[in-house]
Request: fold
Amino acid sequence: MKINVYAIALVLSLYILQLYSCTPGDPDAGIPFGQEFRVVYDHTVSLEDGTEVRFLDLKKDTRCPEDALCAYDGEAVILVALEREDRLGDLVEVPIPGLVDRYSKQRHRQKEFWGYRITLLQLDPYPLSDHAESKFRYVATLRVDALNEGEEMN
Reply:
């Protein structure tokens, strides 16, 4: 019976070791252009070309609370820092209208900068009328697309 327990433990150990050693893709490659990604307030992610995108600040959040009726949808604006080895860092304000989530494609606003098109697809948490959130709880869902060379805007 002891041999069976050891054999099972050995097989499970080998399986777990194989599971953790086989990671798909290169984790250092960065997020591909055109793919959605989430970034937490005051955190940084890297794009496939090495550009770092940091959710630096929540400039404003006047979106109509989820549990209220408003005459104006409002908007939220986040401050994103872009940094790359061959370029000095720059700050970009990226807006999202109220009552918009990542599935509301026709209402998203885009910001073009450094040859990228940056879209804030969703900003969580969505406000409630009786509850103010700390900036540190915010998570932005972004998408960064590479523009053609001739389209670069600053």
User: Anything to note?
Assistant: Strands lie at 36-40, 44-46, 52-61, 75-84, 87-97, 110-113, 116-124, 139-146. Confidence is low (pLDDT under 50) at residues 14-25, 150-154.
